[in-house]
Amino acid sequence: MRIISRSVRLLLFALVLLSLSSAAFAQIGISVSFGPPALPVYEQPICPESGYLWTPGYWAWDPDINDYYWVPGTWVLAPEIGFLWTPPWWGWEGGVFLFHAGYWGPHVGFYGGIPYGFGYFGRGYEGGRWDNGQFFYNRSVTNINVTNIHNVYNTTVINNNVTVNRVSYNGGEGGITARPTPEEESAARERHVAPVAAQTEHIQAARSNPQLRASVNHGAPAVAATPRPGAFNDRGAVKAKSAGAPYTPRPQGKAAAPAERGGNNVPRPPANHASELQSHERPPAPNTGNPKVDQKYQQQQNKLYTKMDQEHQKLQQKQDQEHQRLQQRNASEAEKQQVEQKHQQQTQQLEQKHQQQIQHLQERQQPRPPGRK
N or C end of the chain: smaller count of CB under 10 Å? Predict the structure, then answer.
């Protein structure tokens, strides 16, 4: 039987994550053997302008330093009209805490019942709604300047979680006990979009900021939320009032969960532009024991990988030209962000296509059972 290289196995594993239903971007991204700190107490920054949607802050995991770090809540432009944000969440399963990534979609799915606040009280989103292509904000739970934003309404929301706790994970000892409703399960099967470019950059900036590490801030980050992605030094950024619960240091010797869940189970951040893509590592020459068959398989591999490299280059040239046109026209920030979101979707769609092609090639090259042609 032909041996599949480690690089190809990793590519196939990535494809599995991408193809597990239309909720691909809600799949597990990392597992840790101890839970994240409680959600810090903080105020919501004022919405910068109409069209921005709130994405609550959460604890993420950095395997390089074996520590949680806070990703500040922020206001973000949705990738498509009618789309809402389903926040990421941690859940206890199989003896470890698993991270479920957030995603954009037409409805809010299950996010562990975590009481993130500001409209995200454990079920759905009460902070606003889309109406005829425009987003309307619920003033009762979101911080809106009505002088600048007029598409608002007032609906009182009964939040049963505020007096309970600020637990940041589902299941396990002391965790939230919520389970998905039929509506949330249905939402998980809809078409989803990954975090936009501004969000991934926001996450990377948080990861590189030592002050946002749980071991440093003890559950009360210096930047708890920002008015826009990455605006950590903006005067509108807010500091945590306090930790949501007494901070418990990482148990001695505990870090990420064992590797049996698929390598180190830490996916690389999705590429935002074709220029960030690397050439796919070509697998070793096939070795079926039949030289003619091996030569045929090698030709198929070379043809596919050459074509994928060409498509990378073509998309990169197209995106670079669009960047140049934006600079020449002095385009607005909103227009630039829309183009960045489009580029991110183009890049991820191309990568998903390539991974599917690699899988199909591997399937064609598998030895056939006796008696089959």
Answer: C
- For residues 352 and 11, the answer to whether their CB atoms sit within 8 Å is no
Are 98 and 27 in contact, with CB atoms under 8 Å apart? no
Strand 73-77 and strand 225-226: pairing?
parallel
Give the pLDDT of residue 272. Answer: 64
**Four-residue CA torsion sign, 306, 310, 311, 313:** positive
Lowest mean pLDDT, pick from 109-113, 268-272, 289-293, 330-334: 268-272
Give me 224's structure tokens: 């708890």
Predicted confidence (pLDDT) per residue in 8-30, tens digit:
444 443 443 333 333 334 344 57
The whole-number average pLDDT for the span 224-230 is 96
- The string of DSSP letters for 34-80 reads SPPPPPPB-PPPPP-STTEEEE--EEEEETTTTEEEEE-EEEEE-SS
- Our CA angle for 155, 158, 159, nearest 5°, is 125
- Chain centre distance of CA 75: 15
| Residues paired with 240 in a beta bridge | none
- The answer to whether the Cα torsion of 192, 196, 201, 202 is positive or negative is negative
Q: Give the residue extent of every domain in the chain.
A: 23-261, 274-365
145 neighbors 47 (Cβ within 8 angstroms): yes
Contact present, 25 and 100 (Cβ < 8 Å): no
How far is Cα of residue 53 from the mean position of the Cα atoms in its chain?
Answer: 16
